[in-house]
Structures are given as C-alpha cells and as structure tokens.
Automatic annotation (TrEMBL):
Residues making up the signal peptide according to the UniProt record: none
GO molecular function, one term: carbon-nitrogen ligase activity, with glutamine as amido-N-donor
Name of the featured protein: Glutamyl-tRNA amidotransferase
Species assigned in the record: Candidatus Kaiserbacteria bacterium RIFCSPHIGHO2_02_FULL_49_11
Gene3D superfamilies (alphabetical): 1.10.10.410, Uncharacterised protein YqeY/AIM41 PF09424, N-terminal domain
SUPFAM superfamilies recorded: GatB/YqeY motif (SSF89095)
C-alpha cells in the first residue's frame, strides 16, 4: 500500500461511514507522518513500499500484543475491539504464506545455501526472513527452521 492508496482508503471509509476502519486508517496515517518526521523527511515526504509494509506489520503486531495482554488480564471486551482493528489491518498486508509454502521455501533456501545442520540455522533464518518479508510471520518461519534440523 502506498501513501496515496492510504489517503484514498481514508476517503472511502469516510464516505461509507465505516468508523472502525476510518480510525484504523487514520492511525496508520499518523504512524506514517511520525515515521517521516523521525527520518527527517518532513510530514510531506514519502515512504517506500517496504517502509509502508514495515509500518503496517508493526501496527498488526501491536494489535496482536494488545489482544494477548487484554485476554491475559481478563478483559475480553477490550480484546474484541482490537480484533476488529487487526482484521482491517490484515487486509492491508500481502497474503500470508501457508505452513507448507514456508517449509518448501526453507528447504529450497537451505539447499541453496548448503545448510545441513543447526550450525547454519541462524544464517538460514536471516536469509529466509529477507526473502519472505511481509509474506510470512517470523515466529512461523522460526518454527519451520527449528524443525528442519531436528
């Protein structure tokens, strides 16, 4: 998603009176502005596609963490709102890879790199995360890599 697409999505949500979606999109827009200012580009600057993806992933992780904290703290009613927001954020992310696809990618990368035991697992993990950035959750990739050399 680009910044222009984000602005259009905000307009569409306003016109459709989708309050939750509008709040989520405005929150991401604020994150974009804060990130631009932090990087010294000013609020009128632009982020690359990878930087936008990283922001959206960060927003997703924040919601997942909040859901976990609310449920652990016995506040499921607060977790419901976070789950709604997470569902909207996940529509902005690229489709996530299945477990089988991650395993296939890990085996192919291990063969390409010549990794045959746990000693090269960290290098394999690093290279896989570069290749699968935004397409697969890091915890799922780590679990696959750990299971490859058991």
């Amino acid at each position: 998603m680009t910044q222009a697409e984000l602005k259009e999505a905000i307009k569409t949500a306003m016109k459709a009176r989708e309050t939750v979606k509008l709040n989520v999109l405005r929150g991401i827009s604020a994150m974009v502005t804060n990130d631009l200012v932090a990087k010294g580009r000013g609020p009128e600057g632009a982020l690359t596609e990878d930087e936008m993806l990283a922001l959206i992933i960060r927003a997703s992780k924040q919601r997942k963490d909040s859901i976990q904290q609310f449920e652990a703290g016995g506040r499921p009613e607060l977790a419901v709102a976070e789950k709604e927001e997470l569902a909207i954020i996940e529509t902005l992310l690229p489709a996530q890879m299945s477990q089988d696809e991650i395993v296939a990618a890990a085996k192919a990368k291990a063969a390409e790199m010549g990794v045959v035991d746990k000693t090269g697992a960290n290098k394999l993990m690093g290279m896989l995360m570069k290749d699968l950035k935004g397409k697969a959750d890091g915890t799922a990739v780590k679990a696959v890599v750990d299971n490859l050399f058991v």
